Amino acid sequence: MPLKIVVPVKQVVDYQVKVRVKKDGSGVETQDVKLSMNPFDEIAVEEAVQLKERGIADEIIAVSIGPSSCEQVLLNALAFGADRGILLQTALSFEPLIIAKLLQQIVVKENPDLVLMGKQAIDDDCSQTGQMLAALLNWPQATFVSKLVVEDKKATVTREIDGGLETLMVTIPAVITTDLRLNQPRYPSLPNIMKAKSKPLEKWRVEDFKVDLAPRQQVLKVTAPPKRAKGIKVNSVNELIKLLHETDKVI
Amino acid sequence: MRVLVVAEHDNHNLKAETLATVTAALQVASAVDVVVLGADCATVVDAAAKIDSISEVLLVDNPVYQHPLAENCAPLLVTLAGSYSHLLASSSTFGKNLMPRVAALLDVSQLSDIVEIISENTFVRPIYAGNALATLKALDPIKVITVRASAFALAVLTNAAAPVRKIECVIDNSQSVFIRHELTQSSHPQLGTARIIISGGRGLQSAENFTLLEKIASRLNAAVGASRAAVDAGFAPNDSQIGQTGKIVAPDLYIAVGISGAIQHVAGMKDSKVIVAINNDADAPIFDIADYGLVADLFTVLPELERALAE
């Protein structure tokens, strides 16, 4: 039986943008800043599409939670090759626990075999949502995955861990989070970008789901990190060694 | 208030990241316990018991915990959580994998990768690749936290040993199985704990040229790191990647060789005490954060540096 795959995708400030902290300390400037799909989620979509191309999967559902502009990342996922999209609209931003609970509702509704998602979002850098979703569903988790082999309702995964690689086998259904080296995401072709616009895109409001949306963390302030003092240019290896040895005493 | 630190180890050695996590824990409360989940891990327990100022070591020693599968470890930690106000682990791949699962089972939020403790419920953590720092107040009754080890000093080991309490609880799941490890062999110190790190980027041009860094690393007892570009190009192993989504380090000395300084890389090393950049492109952004910049061809500089260090 081919698999059904849910791929959560998050809209984030593009990785090339160097963010600026707002003057009032309430967050970072996201107005008039380029927004893109979280790069790790692109890898998850690509992996799902490759599984479909190999006949292992037959349906890919991309899910995004956020403002209506998230439609853009869903269209992007559909252009990659996802079959349909689900947008959970909200003007609020939520912690990973609440996102995981909303995704749990989608999983209950759609009943997929796999949830494939990025190992972390490059905005809040939390790296929590996949593990939390697996816990809530009582599914196994395979995090930071750089190789995935699916056969007979089992997934053999290679994980990137400190110190090297670890291989696990998990039963399906499972939550799998993607690391950088799982694949190289494609550039969707123009015909596929056009085709994406005619694929189904369901819209809900987060309030439509029975999830307690109350925050568990309060952001007191967001500040810019301390700036490093400006350094100097040295002209030779000897000058460098002398400074490191005599001034900084680090060698 | 009582804090439980989850020890990270390989059943032989306690990881230094755990010592940094204990330091963070002691800033939260004076009562800190350490839990060791392992198999035949007596040397780890001995080391954990000797960590200065901890109250007790909890031990689960069972073959099920030979490898720290989240599906086995998380529910066990949940059974212990009731006695604690805070559960801490380091934000290594071990802690990042495990702690969110624990938090979700407890129906509490989690704080990732904290770098500063303001009070028992208020913490600072970097966001956006360290380009901003968020101060967060945790509202849940139990705070589940991962700690950026490089932001805290290592707790010291003493001769006095804290008591060890064995726990006869084992949770063996049928959903995940460990198959194998392929660990990187290296004669150099580990990136997480090295006092000096020398890192190479795309400028090194090949895996063979990384031996130029290895030689210097041997002279300095340094660890060898890499930029994402160098890892993507196959010059260096994946686990040597330093940056936002790789390892985050803060050694006394960081030498960046042939690394341009993309924000994702800088996120992983900008808290190093002294930063040296060696690059032939005078406009490379790495020079903006370097204390000492040397604009030169690395293939000339590296042998020169090695010779000078040999003297």
Describe this structure in words.
The complex is a heterodimer of chains A (251) and B (311). Chain A has 251 residues and is of the alpha/beta class. Chain A has one domain: HUPs (Rossmann fold, 3-Layer(aba) Sandwich). Helix content of chain A is 27%, strand content 32%. In chain A, strands 9-8-7-10-6-1-4-5-11 form a nine-stranded mixed sheet, with helices on both faces. In chain A, strand 4, helix 2 and strand 5 form a beta-alpha-beta unit. Chain A is globular, with a radius of gyration of 21 Å. The model of chain A has no long low-confidence stretch (mean pLDDT 97). Chain B is an alpha/beta fold and 311 residues long. Chain B has two domains: 164 residues, HUPs (Rossmann fold); 115 residues, Rossmann fold, CATH 3.40.50.1220. Chain B has nine helices and 16 strands. In chain B, strands 5-9-4-1-2-3-10 form a seven-stranded parallel sheet, sandwiched between helices. In chain B, helix 7 links the parallel strand 14 and strand 15. In chain B, helix 3 packs across helix 4. The chains are: A alpha/beta (251), B alpha/beta (311).
